[in-house]
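TASK: fixed-backbone design
INPUT:
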């Protein structure tokens, strides 16, 4: 099934960290915000990395991201996908992140999972010339990675510690 990315990237002029997924899950597309599947570990991992709670509402999540200068988007504008399975993705059209980079203060780029990393390196890196760091996928499908190991992997984004 052909799916288009249906909501805007989240960022502002002060954003320094860009985290890119592949394509929003079906649940995220329904709710019009990132990492909204209840079993996705993205928000609990960020809460642990920054040692502060993140409320359940989208507004709470946006406040948290703004406070920590984090931008969110995805590597793909559209693709053929079955449900929310990255493994099924075909016929991709990548996002053009140059405007986001121009309109923000992005210093660090991270991708959540192998597919996002692959699409970033194949389609976006040649245009931006900015290397991305691979993070574990927080997807419920990636339950083989223990929560504490995922938190350890994501610590790199907490630039406030360095």
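OUTPUT:
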């Amino acid at each position: 099934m052909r799916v288009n990315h249906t909501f805007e990237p989240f960022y502002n002029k002060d954003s320094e960290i860009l985290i890119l997924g592949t394509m929003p899950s079906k649940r995220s597309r329904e709710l019009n915000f990132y990492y909204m599947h209840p079993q996705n570990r993205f928000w609990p991992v960020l809460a642990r990395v920054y040692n502060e709670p993140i409320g359940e509402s989208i507004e709470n999540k946006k406040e948290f991201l703004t406070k920590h200068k984090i931008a969110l988007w995805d590597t793909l504008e559209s693709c053929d996908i079955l449900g929310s399975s990255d493994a099924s993705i075909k016929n991709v059209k990548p996002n053009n992140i140059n405007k986001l980079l121009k309109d923000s203060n992005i210093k660090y780029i991270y991708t959540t999972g192998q597919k996002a990393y692959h699409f970033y390196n194949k389609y976006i890196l040649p245009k931006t010339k900015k290397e991305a760091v691979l993070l574990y996928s927080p997807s419920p499908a990636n339950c083989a990675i223990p929560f504490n190991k995922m938190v350890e992997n994501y610590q790199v984004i907490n630039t406030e510690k360095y």
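COMMENT: The chain has one domain: 2-155.
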